[in-house]
């Protein structure tokens, strides 16, 4: 904030939308959601765009802030920029606090408005060939090996302390069922194939068409430590770099 304020007061540099986005993102990461919202609303000569609101919406998902999440979606509606992914994030927020009535109401709203979500698809290139995976995918020619590898990875990560983040599952299931439903997300299958099909130490690079869920994020972090692999996931909004159990994320500003 000191650097941000110095730009204007000391050097006369007017912050642009990207500066505000970076500050809002930093505030969101540490849970200062109200301050981030106040910062966005304080913008006088600039109009918040959809990318800026989605940065805050993502932080609302992480910190389970229902009220602000609903407010942010309202701003996206005002901009006529709302997308199916925004409602999925809102569903994530509702499910994380166990508000299944609002999950049901939001699903009904999406159905009535014809808002359809895209299937999550993750791809990985091995030896010049693109391999694509959907959730619970059984179309790959090496599917049996992939699922065997996936089961072994799950065992090793659990020994290392990884626990599935069941708040990422949007259906009202018991904990065991939620854990199973999360086990075979598309990026996890792509990571399993990367472990199976590349030599030890090879960087695993994955592209996904949607946001990476919180559980897959934690899974990749644990995998990078247990298997000593660098994992790079480019999803719809960010580059996620996983190394030795740590992660850094870069926004597409």
Strand order of the largest sheet: 2-1-3-4-5-6
Overall 3D geometry?
globular
Helix content: 40-55%
Estimate the strand proportion: 5-15%
Indicate the low-confidence ranges by residue numbers.
Answer: none
Number of helices in the DSSP assignment: 11
Derived structural class: alpha+beta
**Mean residue pLDDT:** 89
Could you give the order of the helices and strands?
HHHHHHHEEHHHEHEEE
Give the biggest sheet.
6 strands, mixed
- Care to count the β-strands? 6
In whole angstroms, the N-to-C terminal distance is 18 Å
Radius of gyration: 20 Å
Keywords: Repeat
Pfam family, one: DYW_deaminase
Organism: Linum tenue
Domain DYW: 161-253
What does this structure look like?
With 253 residues, this protein is α+β, with helices and mostly antiparallel strands. The protein is 53% helix and 13% strand. It has helices at 2-9, 17-29, 33-41, 50-63, 66-78, 84-96, 100-112, 143-159, 175-182, 186-197, 214-226, and strands spanning 121-126, 129-134, 204-208, 231-234, 238-243, 246-251. A six-stranded mixed β-sheet has the order 2-1-3-4-5-6, with helices on one face.
Quick description:
The protein has 253 residues and is α+β, with helices and mostly antiparallel strands.
Task: Supply the key terms.
253 residues, alpha+beta, 11 helices, TPR-like_helical_dom_sf, RNA binding, DYW domain-containing protein, zinc ion binding
